[in-house]
Design goal:
By secondary structure, this protein is of the alpha/beta class. The chain is 37% helix and 13% strand. The protein has helices at residues 2-11, 26-35, 47-54, 65-73, 109-118, 138-148, 189-199, 212-243, 247-254, 278-286, 294-304, 306-320, 348-358, 411-416, and strands at 16-20, 39-43, 77-80, 91-94, 127-130, 160-163, 182-186, 206-209, 329-333, 362-366, 398-401, 419-422, 434-436. Strands 3-2-1-4-5-6-7-8 form an eight-stranded mixed beta sheet, sandwiched between helices. The longest helix has 32 residues, at 212-243.
Length: 437
């Protein structure tokens, strides 16, 4: 039987795996399969990435070049822009972006274009898995019809379709791609068996669910949970600050309770490709059922308002020193969306720069992991700006700590700048010129 043949190929690691999207999700998957002896073909439309990968060079901070070079030199990995090489692939995993459109609607253009690129090369026994976060129903309603279009092959009979949400947490010291349990949902029972057999080879534990939609919903629940709880502490930060209470002290005290509490931390806004975006995928889909997700939307409103709150708090602090925001030189410390990574997708730091400059301030930024701002969809006007050096921090009157990198000595900014606005509790107000926001 077809299903037995492909499962055996997965179990004895003779199958060839394709991964589309050589980013923060796809590249770690590639390396995990290579570690287990699978031959892997990485697909990407960015020719520069393909050239770097085939040369054994990493462009992601927490992924060492030596790991990529080892896989390439062992003949296990090759990157390409040529999708016709899918003819020789037994399983293809789709790891492409799923951003929001200009009106906060799901942008499935990357999923759709990738699926169209795959469709001509779908063959008997092939497994196609979507890993990109999306709303429940995408695999069935959007991807599957494209794969079957113009072909006599049928999903669940001739080839297999599944959804398995990525759970990457870049640079997490405790969990990696292989140790984070993998949720898997199949279009049919056979699709689930095949997909689970593949992931069982590289993941410590797979978690099967009843459908692709259930797997899609699982990822949304995870990120909505974080979004709502972060919104809660962001709102409490504003309330407690007005009361003269330090939210960071309160969180540390609450953490002493061994049950019924999980610590979340406030900040200047949400960043990364998941939490600021994914909840709105469900919000959009819920309207199809005449439902309003008020709780999710409220959390989104609170989180997206945080950069403006930080600017307002900066303005109030400047007033204490009889300084105006207009004309002040402000240094945004940390451009990445979280500490110790070089990922700046949806980073609130970019919004802070825009808001400060709109108010008339002059801005610069410091981030050792992002020496130059790349082109982005929403902030293309900032592309090409370069990080200052630590010594140049003295040229700025105010430093706003937006991201806390463990390798950065944040006390230097308290010594070099007149005022520090600390949104991450990086300095714990140990200096008279440091103000939490």
């Amino acid at each position: 039987m077809q299903i037995e043949k492909i499962i055996d190929a997965f179990k004895d690691h003779t199958a060839t795996v394709g991964v589309v999207g050589m980013g923060y999700v796809g590249l770690p998957l590639v390396l995990e399969f290579c570690k287990k002896g699978f031959k892997v073909v990485g697909f990407d439309i960015d020719e520069k990435k393909v050239i770097n990968l085939n040369a054994g060079q990493s462009y992601i901070k927490h992924i060492p070049s030596i790991d990529i070079a080892g896989a390439v030199n062992a003949g296990l990995f090759i990157a390409t822009i040529d999708f016709s090489r899918l003819k020789a692939v037994d399983a293809v995993l789709i790891c492409v972006p799923t951003p929001l459109g200009p009106h906060w609607e799901p942008d499935l253009s990357y999923i759709e274009s990738t699926t169209r690129s795959i469709a001509p090369y779908v063959h008997s026994g092939m497994l196609v898995v979507l890993e990109s976060t999306t709303y429940p129903g995408t695999t069935e309603e959007v991807m599957l019809p494209i794969l079957e279009m113009g072909s006599s092959l049928k999903a669940g009979v001739d080839f297999f379709v599944a959804f398995s949400p990525e759970r990457e947490d870049p640079n997490n010291k405790d969990y990696s791609t292989s140790t984070i349990p993998k949720v898997v949902g199949g279009w049919t029972t056979d699709c689930l068996k095949v997909a689970q057999a593949l992931y069982d080879q590289i993941i410590t534990r797979t978690v099967p669910v009843s459908s692709c939609a259930a797997a899609e919903a699982t990822k949304l629940l995870e990120n909505i949970f974080r979004s709502v709880n972060i919104a809660l502490v962001n709102e409490l930060k504003v309330v407690f600050s007005r009361m003269g209470i330090d939210i960071w002290e309160v969180i540390e005290a609450a953490k002493s309770k061994p049950f019924g509490y999980m610590a979340f931390y406030p900040g200047p806004g949400l960043g990364g490709h998941c939490i600021p975006i994914d909840p709105f995928y469900l919000t959009w889909k819920a309207r199809e059922y005449n439902l309003v997700t008020r709780f999710i939307e409220l959390a989104g409103e609170i989180n997206t308002a945080m950069p403006a709150y930080i600017v307002d708090e900066t303005m109030k602090t400047l007033n204490r020193f009889r300084m105006a925001l207009k004309g002040t030189k402000i240094l945004v410390v940390g451009l990445a969306y979280k500490g110790d990574v070089d990922d700046m997708r949806e980073s609130p730091s970019l919004h802070l720069i825009d808001l400060f400059e709109a108010a008339g301030a002059t801005t610069g930024y410091y981030d050792p992991y992002i020496p130059t701002i790349p082109d982005t969809r929403e902030h293309s006007h900032l592309a090409g700006r370069k990080s200052i050096t630590i010594d140049e921090a003295a040229n700025f009157e105010v430093a706003v700590i937006s991201t806390k990198h463990s390798e950065v000595d944040h006390s230097l900014f308290a010594k070099k700048c007149k005022i520090v606005i600390d949104t991450r509790n990086a300095l714990e107000a140990r200096y008279d010129n440091v103000f939490k926001a």
